[in-house]
Structures are given as structure tokens and as C-alpha cells.
Specification:
This protein has 252 residues and is of the alpha+beta class. It is built from ten helices and seven strands. The N and C termini lie far apart (60 Å). This is Carboxypeptidase regulatory-like domain-containing protein.
């Protein structure tokens, strides 16, 4: 491949690295069979958090490809990625789903003993992937050395296309976000809001924001996954001190 062609591919890839400025988006939440008020909207990129009003309206600063995480007690947890159309229009509408009422009693039949290994379809258990990880594997990840494969015709075009349009980059972001969502669910399952308010001295209006603050911290994530309750408590207390100090400074 000539130097000019290599330069062309390089320029196409670099176009995806251009930064756009954040702007305030006017948003609204729609719920078919529920109330859109009191929804916490967090921009993972800039850590800004806002709450929707009684009609579901909200305003939040965001950039293209920023991830917005939405949560409310009465609604299913949801995330959305700001696309170019929403960014340039300055408006984003999001439809959320009400939580389904859990049945009092559900009979579960255990079929764990029936699997591909027991049926001799596989010699060993297949590696499992989360939905985001499966999408990333399907999309492929482009590497510069793969440009040489075009000459011989022995390379799939999807990885190159995905590298140019930023899809692989977005899918990687989804994998990381999915892991944070799982961690957030574990934190919510283990600790009540009263624990954060009473033990960690987090103000009621900042409890949700503090939870996101925790899951964004790599040290806390590692400590939590190690499963030592004492170490987790120490790390949470340390992060609470930093968080409260930042809140106090912001109010001055």
C-alpha cells in the first residue's frame, strides 16, 4: 500500500478524535404507564446530576457520545448515549419503563444439570459474555497493522468501518458502563439509603450522586469485588469524606 493511501486511512481515523464542545440539552422523559417526575439523570462523562420535574422535563450539559444514566424508584434503570442529531438539535427525549410488580410466589425449576457439556455438544463450558461484550466481539476492533491485510484481500472490512465511524469506540464504552451498572446494582442491594445518610453522613439529596461517585472509582470497584466487608467499609468512608468535602467546597 502506498504512503498516500496509508495517510488517507490515518486521516479518516483521526477525524473521529475531534472534540466537540458540551452544550445544554433540553430533555423530557416519557412513561407510558407511570410518572416521569423525580428521575435522576447523571452524565457519566462530566458527573453532572439533575432531576426531572413533574412533567418529566430536565436540562443537562452533554457532548456527543456522552452516556446519560437514568434512575428512579418507580422506573426501570436506563442509560442512553447522546447522538449527533440530539446534540445539534439541543433536545433529547427519553422513554422509560415502569417497574413490573414482582409476583409473590414463583416456582423455579432447576435445569442447571442440562447444558452443552452434559449433552456432549462441547468438551468444556463455553466462555460467557455480557450483552455489551458480545456486541463488541461482533463489531471487531481495528488495529493499524490490519491495513496491510487489505492488499491481500484477507481482512474483513467491518473492523475498519467500525474504526472510522466510531462504533467500536462506543461499544467499548458500553462494556465499561455495563460493568459499572452491575456494580451499582450490587451496592444498592447491599446498602440502604439510610446507611449512606446515617453512617457515611451523606445528605439525602446527594445519596444517588454519591453512589455513582463510588462506582466510577476504580479503587472502590476493586475493593468491592474482593468482597472484604471491613475493607469495603473503610473505602466507602474514605470516599464519603472526599465527596462531602467537594460538596461543601461547591456550595461556598
Amino acid at each position: 500500500m502506498t504512503k498516500n493511501k496509508l495517510l488517507l486511512y490515518g486521516c479518516l481515523l483521526l477525524l473521529q478524535l475531534a472534540f466537540s464542545q458540551q452544550r445544554v440539552l433540553e430533555g423530557r422523559i416519557f412513561v407510558a404507564d407511570g410518572v416521569p417526575s423525580g428521575v435522576h439523570i447523571v452524565n457519566v462523562a462530566n458527573e453532572q446530576e439533575v432531576v426531572s420535574d413533574s412533567d418529566g422535563h430536565f436540562s443537562i450539559a452533554a457532548d456527543i457520545d456522552d452516556v446519560l444514566v437514568l434512575s428512579a424508584e418507580q422506573l426501570e434503570f436506563q442509560r442512553t448515549i447522546v447522538d449527533k442529531d440530539q446534540y445539534y438539535k439541543g433536545r433529547i427525549d427519553i422513554t422509560m419503563i415502569s417497574k413490573v410488580t414482582q409476583l409473590e410466589e414463583v416456582e423455579v425449576v432447576n435445569h442447571n444439570n442440562i447444558n452443552a457439556v452434559s449433552l456432549r455438544i462441547l468438551n468444556r463450558p463455553a466462555k460467557t459474555y455480557t450483552p455489551a461484550e458480545r456486541r463488541l466481539r461482533t463489531a471487531g476492533v481495528f488495529k493499524p497493522i490490519q491495513l496491510l491485510g487489505i492488499i491481500a484481500g484477507g481482512m474483513e472490512l467491518d473492523p475498519i468501518i467500525n474504526a472510522i465511524n466510531g462504533k467500536a469506540k462506543r461499544l467499548k464504552k458500553e462494556v465499561l458502563l455495563e460493568k459499572k451498572e452491575m456494580l451499582l446494582s450490587k451496592v444498592n442491594a447491599r446498602y440502604t439509603d439510610d446507611y449512606f445518610k446515617t453512617e457515611l453522613k451523606i445528605a439525602s439529596e446527594y445519596v444517588t450522586g454519591f453512589k455513582y461517585y463510588l462506582v466510577e472509582d476504580a479503587d472502590f470497584a476493586e475493593t468491592f469485588e474482593n468482597g472484604n466487608p471491613e475493607r469495603i467499609g473503610i473505602e466507602m468512608a474514605r470516599k464519603a469524606t472526599d465527596f462531602n468535602a467537594a460538596v461543601s467546597k461547591e456550595k461556598k
